[in-house]
# Entry
Amino acid sequence: MGAGEDMDLKSLKHPSLAPSYARMQALSALPLWEIIGDLVAEEPSPMGVPHLWRYHEMRALILDAGQRISAAEAERRVLALKNPGLERPGISQTLFAGLQLVMPGEVAPAHRHTQGAIRFVLESTGGYTAVEGERCLMRRGDLITTPSWTWHDHENTGDGPLIWLDGLDVPLVNFFGVRFAEEHPAEQQPIARPDDASVSLWGTGMRPIGARHPKPWSPVMSYPYASVRAALMSASEGAMPDPRHGHALAYCNPQDGGHVLPTIAAFLHHLPEGFETAPWRTTEASVFTVVEGEGTARIGDAELSFGESDVFVAPNWTRITLQASKPTILFRFSDRAAQERLGIWREDPGTPGS
Ligand code: 1HN
# Structure
């Protein structure tokens, strides 16, 4: 019997009490001794299933939508990647992921909402996301954040499609019942600072004297691929790859070393050609996209072969093994930041290297 469902009288542990169960239910009460196994368990059950979305298939669908519905009309022209094992339109129980398209000359109008987002750029000939008065330029591989309640709008200033992977904490924020949103009075918010100002100021290892960024997210809103890739390569140089992660870096808040958003953590993994990770599992749900290379992901019982820009999901508490058949760079985001803040994140103690 599931918590919150009507009790199945046939599977009761104490059927002799059934007559009083009906009375309890009528009075909106439940006998915990019948349902406790659904609420607390020795270890988690994965929610949702492992799944991979092929970029070329998704790209064709979103480009077709691009011919038929404008970005302004759609509000956001996003193809949501729905986990086939879940009812709701999330990629995991906690995260939303989608592929967003803005066509040349189009603007996705300014708005803000309590849900926080990251954007990982897959295809660009020029464009930006404006966040709180500054433009974060979008080139392939760049990571841009739009934290909770920050104004954001997108524009394609190039001559080809602008496509990125959206990652949002929508299921988490909505679970808490904190679903606020507001449209900006103008289509595009006013620009108050130079392009990529947050990178110039906070992304160099410097901070204004006496200043503290007062929010629970990184003051850096853009992590350009050219610099994070260079950092990853220098971390890889002459070093042994971590057995679980390969060579890996976390995108971090330079003020405190924490994750980019209070809910969402992001990572970049470099798997040398032929490298295979040791199986690892944690309580977080992870979404991957392939920046460079190709290989195979074994996630639980699923074997998924991945190529450039494909997106795949590993549900919570599911073993992941990654194998690279070419030099490979994977971007990953997860709900680990939220779990760490709640003090509940765990790694399987049996995972090699932990
Ligand atoms: C949203 O506001 C954006 O601002 C993208 O680009 C994806 C998915 C669900 C809800 C809001 C955006 C979204 C979204």
